[in-house]
Amino acid sequence: MEEIFKALNDPTRRALLDALRDRDGQTLSDLEARLNMTRFGVMKHLNLLEDANLITTTKKGRFKYHYLNALPLQEVIDRWIEPLLAKSAARGIITSKHNLGRNDPMLDTVKPDFRMQTFIKCTQDALWDALTSPEAAANYHPYTPVAVRNGDALHYKLPDGCDMLICRETSKTPKIRIESEFSPQWAPEIPVSRFVWEIEPQGDACRLTLEHFDIPPGGEGYAEGWERLVAGLKTWLETGTPTRISGPR
Questions:
Q1: Where does CATH 3.30.530.20 sit in the chain?
Q2: Distance (Å, rounded) from C-alpha 92 to C-alpha 229?
Q3: Can you list the residues of the chain whose pLDDT is less than 70?
Q4: DSSP assignment, residue 81?
Q5: What superfamily in CATH does domain 105-239 come from?
Q6: Where in the chain are all domains bearing CATH 1.10.10.10?
Q7: Rounded to whole angstroms, how far apart are CA atoms 76 and 107?
Q8: Please, what's the largest Cα pairwise distance for the chain?
Q9: By C-alpha distance, which of 156, 184, 181 is closest to 171?
Q10: pLDDT for 80
Q11: pTM as predicted
């Protein structure tokens, strides 16, 4: 928590976060061009933001890309502000990345359009089951209480029984990695994209990373949906309380 406040107590670092809020996935050169500062100075500020978990990075080919990771700020809000507004389940999401089990070599060179990470205090088995079991969706999915499995695809259902979303798993490394297609049925005109879950055990917790690739026009709300889903997933796995962090009605 102290690192978060220290990182935010500087206008240059706040400007870097603003830049990533405006356009995620920028390189050091992209960010350097926005500031009247040496390359080394920008690197120092980025390192402090990464240490505070306010940004995450991934390297694809020769380039390192930076992503805003706003979820530590959500933890601050949940700790001190949210209880003043309403009883609400704790939300969270934090950091990491590993290269075990990569089955698609193209993903090593293509940068994701959206990236987020978190620590969840649970076993690797429990997290894997939560991501792959249709019965688990009712406990944390923000938009639907029902999912069914049809072979390698998870169908998330609307209350009337129609498909809201179909996620077809294209590759799995058991308990480590899942690659899936993302096919929004609420707007069939939006092209299919793809996303990846990665799990890495960390003592009595797991580090969970999500990357979403090829987000098309019309998919601008995907990021908020993922944030709500993972926040509910974290709360459910850590407390046993089903938590659906849905949007405003």
A1: 105-239
A2: 11
A3: 74-75, 77-109, 247-249
A4: I
A5: START domain (3.30.530.20)
A6: 2-68
A7: 33
A8: 57
A9: 181
A10: 63
A11: 0.65
- The per-residue pLDDT for 108 is 56
Per-residue pLDDT, 87:
42
Nearest to 116 by CA among 229, 15, 14, 26: 229
Tokens 């923000």 belong to residue: 142
Residues 6 or more apart whose CB falls under 8 angstroms from that of 116 comprise 56, 67, 69, 71, 93, 209, 210, 223, 226, 227, 230
Query: How many Cβ atoms from other residues are within 10 Å of residue 134's Cβ?
Result: 15
* Spatial strand order in the sheet of 193-202: 114-120, 205-213, 193-202, 177-184, 163-173, 153-157, 146-150
pLDDT, one tens digit per residue, over 43-101 is 999 999 998 889 888 888 888 999 988 777 766 766 665 555 544 433 333 333 333 33
- What is the dotted CATH code of the domain comprising 2-68? 1.10.10.10
